[in-house]
Design brief:
The complex is a heterotrimer. Chain A is mostly helical. Helix content of chain A is 77%, strand content 0%. The relative contact order of chain A is 0.13. In chain B, β9 and β10 form a beta hairpin. In chain B, strands 6-7-8-3-9-10-12-11 form an eight-stranded mixed sheet, sandwiched between helices. In chain B, strands 2-1-4-5 form a four-stranded antiparallel sheet, covered by helices on one side. Helices cover 33% and strands 23% of the residues of chain B. Chain B starts with a strand and ends with a helix. In chain B, α7 runs parallel beside α8. By secondary structure, chain C is mainly alpha-helical. Chain C has a two-stranded antiparallel sheet. In chain C, strands 3-4 form a two-stranded antiparallel sheet. In chain C, α1 crosses α12 and α4 packs parallel to α8. Classes of the chains: A mainly alpha, B alpha/beta, C mainly alpha. At the A-C interface, α1, α6, α7, α10 and α11 of A face α5, α6, α10, α11 and α12 of C.
């Protein structure tokens, strides 16, 4: 077991390393322009560009630049090229908003997905199922940021049902925290509810035809017991594992759009700003932050799989 | 004569499919007596599994139509709501299926699955149910039951798994056990063990068993009575001895004739029944075996009823005169 | 005892099931059966029709631009006036509010804050968005299939290396990767050896989106290939002396085609959503070119005064993506040989 953990940790580190190199290369090698020139701005004369270059260490060989940047990240000293903010600090400050958004949305989307998926499967082919399926399909066909904009317009402007303004910390004002997050939660959840409820429906319908469900009925269990203890329980395994992966992606960067539209100062918003200004250090920081969570959740999911499915946990044991 | 505890009368089951309506079971009638082992024999598609599963209402689906009567101890089961059938399932009539690996839920411990069944019908504590589960595993011959009760299905071998299924089926001491091809997925040696177990259970507990199989060897081991099914109908209904020594239906002859025998002459060909079973989408109007039967004559265009033509309770579905049958049979079965 | 092989009779033709004339026996290939099932799915066919209509609509852009609206997608008319119901009106009012939708040939859906005809932009934007969606799906599919075939067939170290690469790409937050590549490449374009793509070429977003989704398609296909590889017909092919490439293309590939088709269709939908997100954030299609994503970005600035600028392109995206999703689902059901049709009896 310990060996398994160590191996996974090493794998994580390897992946993160690869990602940091890739991001670094993307911004330093691919563009056909000099980062210093970009930062120095238009109308800069060569002398200014050279000074900016030296100032930011951009005249050193690439590997040195990379190492310096990595060192700065780990010591928490990485400064953005615009030189006014500490990257690590900014990311840290953005975490409460991002986590509030992601965790809240995740709870909502899982709860609704299980409910809708279960109802859909149980009433397959009938009106409930068709209606829920249409809703789900529309949900997964909507651009998230568009939905956010529309909700903002209709529910905070046309009808002042929800407040505008940005993130309110939980510790300051729980009610305010929630009321500002309801629309973002819902927006982020819509896409996933659609996808997951359909997946659960499909899994449950397949499970209904399994032999062990027939056995459960033959044992004289009530239909409800059969559905929940056998059909639902077994159908949830792939859902839970997929959830882990998606949650990692959402925290990692999927929330950018929602945070941007709703003006929640989380890590995603910070990433958006960094991109617009082509600011490399924050970008690397944010990307590593995101990748870390994705890889972390990948690993958690692998463990979860073992917990949920004893066949994986124990392997195919020798017959008695 | 012991009373019949299960009576099936003119049971018909059909399914609507993409290609049309499949008449899986076309009018099946028989009785099961207390403590009797009744074997239902037939090839794939003969309707034997569907018949068995329909008894406890497991074939209900939106595309299925079931007519006829299934009565257990005088109580009509066909047409009952699922809720009402619950009391019968497991407690009075228990089932064991063909593939124990897929018939047990892979994510629950074996003991938990047995406990679940017990507590669905009896008001006992988890502890009591757990003890009972251990006893049950012991009674079907699983060594070390206290430990094995906490194992998962995939940690057992095929034969052991089937014993677990049987243990689970017996948890509430039912009167009837329906075993749908219980040994088909097992090795021959394990097969013998399971059959012996079923035989012991039948004798010790007076447990009536309906044994579905396609293997006449299995039938010979433990059956008291044999139903031969073909194309959704019963073609012969007789005791074990009558079936093997005085079979009345050409299909039964074909089945027996195709068995390998120790006293066969060297170099003799293994007999086959030429042809295929009819499509159940549009079964033939007359005798359903006629298209493949070498002994058919013009009366066979009319469906023969299942009747006792040689006396007693030996029923068959063939127009041939019993005297005629004897000579023809000798050609098929040496 | 048992019959020896030499004396076995050759099997004769089995009799037909009772009552079925020989002429009615017709072989039915899985494709034909799938087509029959698809034909029965009215909803899926309807959505396919919707998608086709949308494509035609967008293809008609030049016609509309020339004959009805008399303007191009990128032409500004900020300071102009136009005749509405006989009244000359400012295309963009003094407070910055552009004219709204109405029943007139020019500016049927109104104008945006730069005085551009929304309808014309919608149609041209659709061409861009759909084209990107399709092209990127082609890129993803080709790359994924190659990766999956190589990894699944050869296994061993080739599989390890390819899977690791897929893992790294997968670990990248999709949006961030797309944005990073999008902004970086937008500046100077892409130069790989002789291949040079300009920074504002439409192929930049196409390559990026195509690339980003490769792990999502390659992994499941690789899984299928791994499973297929164990089957006897592959062993038979190897025993016959077929080389790896032939096995990959004539044995493995045909068996995964139905999966590929379904993934391809659904991938187009995902690509369009990703393109709109990237364009919204400024990392996709470059202004002043129109795509439905850039239109939403532009419209967002005016959301409180001219909401239709945001609503309309979004609805188009939803309609297109939804029809693709429903049709893709229908395809999946039709091609799945285990699909059960539930009938009442």
């Amino acid at each position: 077991m310990a060996r398994f953990i160590v191996r996974r940790l090493l794998g994580m580190i390897a992946v993160l390393f690869a990602i940091s190199v890739i991001v670094f290369l993307i911004f330093n090698v691919i563009p056909n322009s000099d980062p210093a020139a970009r930062i120095a701005g238009k109308n800069a004369d060569p002398a200014l560009i050279a000074r900016v270059s030296a100032d930011l260490g951009l005249d050193k060989p690439l590997p040195i630049q990379y190492l310096t940047m990595m060192k700065q990240i780990f010591t928490g000293q990485l400064m953005s090229y615009a030189k006014d903010r500490n990257v690590v600090q900014q990311i840290w400050d953005g975490i409460p908003a991002t986590f509030s958004l992601c965790i809240g949305a995740a709870v909502i989307w899982m709860a609704l997905a299980v409910l809708f998926g279960y109802l859909s499967a149980m009433h397959a082919g009938k009106f409930t199922d068709r209606a829920l399926t249409i809703l789900s399909l529309v949900g997964i066909s909507m651009p998230v940021f568009w939905l956010a904009a529309i909700l903002l317009y209709f529910l905070t402007f046309k009808i002042q049902l929800f407040p505008t303004g940005s993130y309110v910390p939980l510790t300051e004002d729980p009610v305010g925290w929630a009321s500002h997050l309801i629309l973002p939660w819902f927006t982020l959840a819509v896409l996933f509810v659609g996808f997951y409820s359909r997946m659960l429906r499909s899994n449950m319908l397949d499970a209904m035809n399994e032999d062990y469900v027939r056995t459960a009925r033959a044992k004289g269990l009530s239909e409800r017991q059969v559905r929940i203890r056998h059909v639902l329980r077994n159908s949830m395994i792939p859902i839970v594992t997929l959830f882990g992966l998606d949650f990692g992606q959402v925290v990692g960067g999927g929330a950018i759009l929602t945070e941007t539209v709703y003006n929640l100062n989380g890590v995603g918003l910070y990433a958006g700003e960094a991109i617009r200004s082509l600011d490399l250090p924050p970008l690397i920081g944010v990307t590593l932050f995101g990748a870390f969570f994705i890889v972390l959740f990948n690993t958690i999911v692998d463990f979860a799989y073992a917990v949920l499915d004893p066949r994986i946990r124990l392997g195919e044991a020798a017959p008695a | 004569m012991t009373e019949a505890i299960l009576t099936v009368d003119d049971l018909k089951v059909s399914f609507a499919t993409e290609d049309g309506v499949v008449q899986a079971v076309g009018g099946v009638s028989f009785e099961l007596r207390a403590g009797e082992v009744l074997a239902i024999v037939g090839e794939s598609g003969s309707g034997k599994s569907v018949t068995a599963q329909t008894i406890t209402g497991l074939t209900r689906a939106s595309n299925a139509r079931i007519t006829g009567s299934v009565s257990y101890r005088g109580r009509e089961l066909n047409g009952l709501e699922d809720d009402q059938l619950r009391g019968v399932r497991g407690e009075q009539i228990a089932m064991v299926f063909q593939d124990p690996m897929s018939s047990l839920n892979p994510v629950y411990r074996v003991g938990d699955q047995i406990i679940e069944m017990i507590r669905a019908h009896r008001d006992v504590s988890k502890h009591e149910a757990a003890d009972r589960a251990v006893e049950l595993l012991r009674s079907v011959g699983i060594p070390n039951p206290e430990r094995r009760v906490r194992h998962y299905p995939h940690e057992f071998s095929g034969g052991m798994r089937q014993r677990v299924m049987i243990a689970m089926a017996l948890a509430l001491e039912p009167d009837v056990l329906i075993a749908d091809e219980p040994t088909t997925a097992l090795d021959v040696t394990v097969q013998a063990q399971i059959l012996r177990l079923l035989d012991d259970l039948n004798r010790e507990r007076d447990l009536a068993i309906v044994l579905i199989t396609h293997d006449l060897g299995v039938v010979a081991e433990i059956a008291d009575r044999v139903l031969v099914m073909y194309a959704g109908q019963i073609v012969e209904n007789a005791t074990l001895d009558e079936t093997f020594y005085d079979p009345q239906h050409p299909y039964t002859w074909g089945l027996l004739g195709s068995l390998m025998r120790l006293d066969q002459t060297r170099g003799a060909r293994l007999a086959q029944i030429p042809g295929q079973p009819p499509s159940l989408l549009a079964p033939p109007q007359g005798c359903r075996f006629a298209p493949r039967c070498p002994h058919k004559f013009d009366k066979c265009d009319e469906l023969p009823p299942l009747q006792a033509r040689v006396g007693g309770e030996h029923l068959d579905r063939c127009w041939l005169d019993p005297e005629e049958k004897k000579s023809r049979r000798a050609q098929v079965i040496p | 005892m048992v019959a020896t092989v030499g004396e076995m009779e050759a099997p004769g033709e089995p009799p037909l099931p009772a009552g079925v004339p020989k002429s009615q026996i017709q072989g039915r290939s899985p494709w034909y059966l799938a087509w029959l099932r698809l034909r029965r799915n009215k909803v899926a066919l309807f959505c396919a029709g919707v998608f086709v209509l949308i494509v035609l609509f967008c293809l008609a852009a030049p016609l509309w631009a020339e004959h009805v609206a008399h303007t191009g997608p990128n032409e500004n008319h900020i300071t102009e006036k136009v005749l509405i119901d006989g009244q000359p009106t400012n295309v963009v009012g003094p407070d910055g509010t552009p004219i709204g939708p109405g029943l007139h040939g020019q500016y049927l859906l109104g104008a945006d804050q730069n005085g551009r005809d929304v309808m014309v932009r919608l149609m041209y934007g659709g061409r861009t968005s759909i084209y990107i969606g399709l092209a990127a799906a082609a890129v993803t599919t080709v790359l994924s299939v190659i990766v999956a075939l190589l990894a699944g067939y050869y296994r061993g170290w080739i599989d390890s290396v390819l899977s690791r690469i897929m893992d790294v790409i997968w670990a990248f937050p999709v949006l961030l990767l797309g944005i990073a590549l999008g902004t970086a490449l937008a500046v100077g374009g892409l130069k790989i050896g002789p291949l040079a793509i300009a920074g504002d070429s439409i192929w930049i977003p196409i390559m990026i989106i195509g690339f980003v989704y490769v792990p999502y398609m390659a992994r499941p296909i690789r899984g299928e290939i791994l499973a297929l590889r164990e089957k006897e017909f592959i062993e038979a092919a190897v025993a016959q002396g077929k080389g790896p490439l032939r096995i990959m293309f004539s044995e493995l590939l045909p068996n995964i085609i139905s999966t590929i088709i379904v993934f391809f269709t659904l991938n187009i939908a995902n690509n369009m959503l990703l393109e709109s997100a990237l364009s919204f954030l400024g990392a996709g299609v470059r202004p002043p070119n129109a795509s439905w994503g850039t239109m939403i970005a532009d419209g967002y600035e005016m959301i409180y005064t001219a909401p239709h600028l945001t609503i309309v392109p979004g609805l188009m995206i939803i309609a297109t993506v939804l029809s693709l999703n429903v049709f893709g689902d229908g395809l999946r059901d039709a091609l799945d040989p285990r699909a059960k049709i539930r009938l009442e009896h």
